[in-house]
Each structure stands twice: as C-alpha cells, then as structure tokens.
Amino acid sequence: MRTLMLSSLALGLAGQAEAGLEVCNQTDTRHQVAIGYSDNGDWVSEGWWGVDPGACTTVIGGDLKVRNVYYRPTASGHDYGGEYAFCVDSAAFTIRGDTDCAARGYREALFLMEDTGPTATEWTIVLNGAPVPDKAPAPPPAPAPAPAPAPMAGLGFEYSDFDSGIEPGTMGEPFTVEGRFLECAMPEGERYCLFEAEGWEWYLYEGATPSFALDAMEVLTPGQRAVFSGDVISYGDISVEAMLRRYVADGTEDESDRIWAAVQGSFYAADEPGYTADVYTNNFFTENGGILSGEIFRIAPDCPESNGAGPVMIRTERETQDSVCFVLSDWGPGGFTTTFAGGWQETRWVRR
Fold it and tell me: Model confidence at 146, in pLDDT bands (50, 70, 90)?
C-alpha cells in the first residue's frame, strides 16, 4: 500500500451533482486536476481545474457519455502516478491524441482510471486521503544505450527588459533577486507567472501584478535568467507571493542554463530501469517500486557538501524543506549523471 491522498466515491454521492463528472476535495491541500477520455475514437486530455480544500469542481458538464474516465490529480509535494499515459501541458490545455507528446511540445503524464459502469450519467471523484492499493507494475523497459553525445543547440534567449513604473513598496517589502523564469499559466482562469530564485518559488498572480506586467513576462523563454524586482506580499513554506515591478534579462546563456535545459524530460536509471524520473521546469518527480517522490530543484556551481566539485543539482522536498545535493556530470541530449555530494551512489539517468 502507498498512502497517496486519493480515493474515489461513486454514484451514491454523485446524486447531488449537477454535472456528469465532478471532483470534490476533502483534503487540506489545493489540488489541480486534469482528465482524459475517448472522443469518437480519439484520446483527448484536458486541464487544469483547481479544486480548493472542501470544494467541488465540475470537469464534465451534462450527462456522462463515456464509461471510463481518466484523471490526474496533483498537489504540492504529491505526484499520484497512474497506469495510463496522456499528453499534458503546464498551462491550460486541450490536447487530442496521446502519442508523440514531446514532439508536439507537451509532456507525458500518467493518469488513473475510473470505471463508472455501463449506465451512470453522473459521477463524483472524491480526493480524501485514503490509501490506494498498488497495482501490478508494468514490466520495466529494457536498458538501452545512451544516444551518442550531440552538441547542445543555443537556447534562444534574447535581451528583454520591462519597467512598470510602479513605485517600490506599493504592495509590500521591496526585493531584487536574480532568478530563473519557469512559466506563465492560467489554470481555471487564475493567471500567474512563476520564477525560482535562491531556492524559493516566486508566484506573480494577476491582480496583485498588473496584466501588462504578466504579458511582459511571457516574452521570456522558460529557463531564462533575469534580475527581478518588485514587492513581497507573503511567504509560504518554500514559496513567495510577490508583485512584479521590473525585470532585466540580458539574453546570455551559461553552463547552468544549458544544464537546466538538458535535464528537462523523462528518464530511467540505467542500472535500475524501474526507477524513473520526470523533470519539468523546477520539478523533479521520481518513482521507484511504487514509491513516489516530488521535489523542486535548482542548478548551482557547487554546494558545501561537494567540497568544490560541481556543477550540482540541489533537490528540496516541498513539505519538509530538506535538501540533498548531487554533483552533475555527463549531461547532454542523452541524459545526465548524478552523484550524491561526497562521492557515493552514482545514478546515470537515460532519456526515455
């Protein structure tokens, strides 16, 4: 058994629902949910819907017209896995087809499946923290040799600067940090942009940050470094809500940028093919023997534990804020190698 904050409740609770498929969140953590289904022979995936603690969200309106519904719930510090692969995106999406995700600019993610029975027209999925039994794992892929090294292409960064003209201190304590832009997204209509700096995730939500400032952020390329200034609104355990006042991105790229780009994607451990990793933006999700782990990471020249060796990847567990440092080597299009700082337990990650 693995304790994943997930269970489902069938038609008995769905009688109160006004729609074909509803997701209710009985945990104390906000979740994002994506769904998948068959539409005239094509597989379709859609997301994301935000579901606050104690709230319900309609994800399919009207009567259910499919028996099997697929869904992927995610929350801070949790990745629920699944058995069925669909394409997803970081921003709001509707994607037809479940193959060639990376080639089409998406990433692949695993979904769970709910059999609603042959006659149900309404169904409710309840996220309530109950354990979910492990299912028999699929056979691990056979080890494959890493592709021959190829030169990394330029990352396409360009010079960009923005100044809102807003006075410092308008919304809170002024700040200036050097960070890495990650993404702009709009799950369920709540638009935000995100960058990481100094081991923190910095969220810029529309409203506190003007729309024209978020428009300017979307000019940046994911992974691009910039100097950001604004006002701190509030702090979380490992995140900051802030208002953006200005940024300057000089358009140059260095080794840390090329490493960040090289480690994005899906990988398996060369010596243990059942040990897998999915890396996107600053998220590092692993699965090994049914045990799931979700962390955030950053690239740095070195860390105290590496005794000057580097570059390194520092991975931080969201809920505990515990960090582990890994020395990086042999990074490129085919994968990368991580070694615990101190020189033991090396893992070669091969791109899937």
Answer: very low
Q: Is residue 77 very low, low, confident or very high in pLDDT (cuts 50, 70, 90)?
A: low
Q: What is the dihedral of CA 316, 321, 322, 327, to 10 degrees?
A: 20
CA distance 15 to 256: 53
Of 138-152, 270-284, 294-308, minimum mean pLDDT range: 138-152
Same domain flag for 43 and 90: yes
Over the chain, what is the mean pLDDT?
Answer: 83
* Cβ 112 vs Cβ 34: under 8 Å: no
More confident call, 188 vs 266: 266
Pair 230, 276 in one domain: no
| 100/25 same-domain check | yes
pLDDT at 78: 56
Whether residues 209 and 110 fall in one domain? no
Q: Domain end: 110, 127, 144, which one?
A: 127
Question: CB count, 10 Å around CB of 132?
Answer: 16
Same domain, 22 and 76: yes
Strand, helix or coil at 51?
Answer: strand
Residue 292: domain span: 265-351
Nearest-angstrom CA–CA distance, 307 and 293: 27
Indicate the pLDDT class of residue 214, thresholds 50, 70 and 90.
Answer: very high
Within a domain: 5? no
Cross-strand partners of 225: 180
Cβ(35)–Cβ(69) below 8 Å: yes
In three-state secondary structure terms, 127 is strand
Residues 18 and 119 in one domain: yes
Radius of gyration of the chain (CA): 21
Q: What pLDDT score was predicted for residue 157?
A: 87
Provide the whole-model pTM.
Answer: 0.55
Cα separation, 332 vs 263, in Å, equals 8
What is the DSSP-derived secondary structure letter of residue 19? S
- When divided into structural domains, the chain yields a total of 3
Q: What is the CATH number of the domain that holds 244?
A: 2.40.50.140
